[in-house]
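To whoever is on call:

I kicked off a structure prediction for a single chain this morning and the downstream step that reads the tokens threw a length-mismatch warning. I double-checked the sequence; it's 527 residues and nothing unusual in it as far as I can see. Pasting both halves so you can look.
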Amino acid sequence: SQAAMDPNPNTFPILSYVMSKLPSIGPRRAPAADFDVEQPQPAPAPEFPEPRFELSERMPRLDDPGVAAAMRAAVADVAQTRSVLQTLGERPDHEAVDAARAKVAEIEASLSKRLEEIVLSPRPAEVDRAEWRAGLAEKGEESRAAAERERQAYKAVISLDEMHEAYEKLLKDAEERLERIYQSAVEGGDYAAAAARGSEEGIGEEVNEEVVGILQDVGKGVERIDLSCRQLRVLPEAFGRIRSLVVLNLASNQLEAIPDSVAGLENLEELNLSSNLLTSLPDSIGMLCSLKILNVSSNKLASLPDSICRCRSLIELDASFNNLSYLPTNLGYELVNLRKLLVQLNKIRSLPTSIGEMSSLRILDVHFNELRGLPLTIGRLANLEILNLSSNFSDLTELPDTIGDLTSLKELDLSNNQIHALPDTFGRLDNLTKLNLEENPIVIPPKEVVNEGVEAVKYYMSKRWLDILVEEEQKSMLEVKEQTETGWLTRSTSWLNNMVSGVSGSLSGYLGAREKSNLDPYLNQQL
């Protein structure tokens, strides 16, 4: 109802009083047949008791024309939002919102599965590779479009709930602005300036002048703005008009939200929002097609918007030290240019399957989360050089065999987990030079080998892998011993010779480096 949109006079007394004086909101009158525009009828009793008379007696400056005008200007955003919400409807109940969120999650999970099926579908021999890839891309776009159509109704419910929640915060901020204006009027100060400070997010007067000055230079081709450590509480919508902006630093403030108008920063390449109070990012952030570096670390983000996947120019994404429990499903399918992904110090339980599509990724830091494992697709990160999986504690107990496909990997941190054995393919990590296995109940390789260092670990795992291959080959030979055909045996023997030759090559470097020194007695015994 309309009354439900009005600020509660007991919670927001000044705001309630000021808004009751606005022509578009004031006391509601019942229509009368003999209504005369020049002689309006007396207003009926309000639908709820408003302490207007008592408040105006306690705060006599409320009736001052200048103060009243400043206050009306300060609550313009509240009145506008109230009008929008009146059109959209009342806030949906909690169960309806939860059901909508669950449905959206179900649709996204279904889409992820469908996209994975498309990506993994085999190419028919008679189909040209380029034509096949184009077909896959078309199927993927069709699936995304269908999912988006299905999501729209549920996302509308969620968005309406979020708008009402934001409106409640808006009421609180408005009441604080009005208190500052009135206090300034009582003290004989410039209450008009106090109103400006209120509309410019309640920052200090000196900082306010800086912000206002920046906004006045909108048409002067400003490319870099540094407003870090300014105690900003809200970013003005007008910032979205600075289309020339390339670098924007808003780190170490008190921002709780970023306006949708940020979508207007079409040339923005670097955005630093670290160390604020953000609980969410606007969907419009996906419109920043030129964005290369995004830092949202040290906030209160519970999730990243799906739209962030449309920032396809991203090279670095730092979302560390937040409350993330998952990453967008399609993150890997879309952010194929990403080189650095930092999501440490969150509550992430699993990485999306799509992460394997990040062909440009060099650095992946997921330490101090709640990872329960890695997707098999992790092995597709052919250019990954640094991987930090440390401090996932009791949640991380094993690694997939595909970890051995990370042939470019140079540094791997597995400390503070519950890993008992490295995968048999571990010896294939030829470029690995740093390995941390501290604080793990490691059995394979034995502690003695681990203490010898990364080269000893790779050598041990390579030898172990070779032994497994030989054992499997011997079992296969026994199973076909009674067969009369020898062709298959010949091929198997050739395959074994190739495998032995390959593994021997990876071992030769280690043996060559150690042949003039005494090998660890334990290794001599084992090998």
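Update from on-call: the warning came from a stale cache, not from the record. Cleared it. Sanity check on the structure: Residues 27-53, 198-208, 515-527 have pLDDT under 50 and may be disordered.
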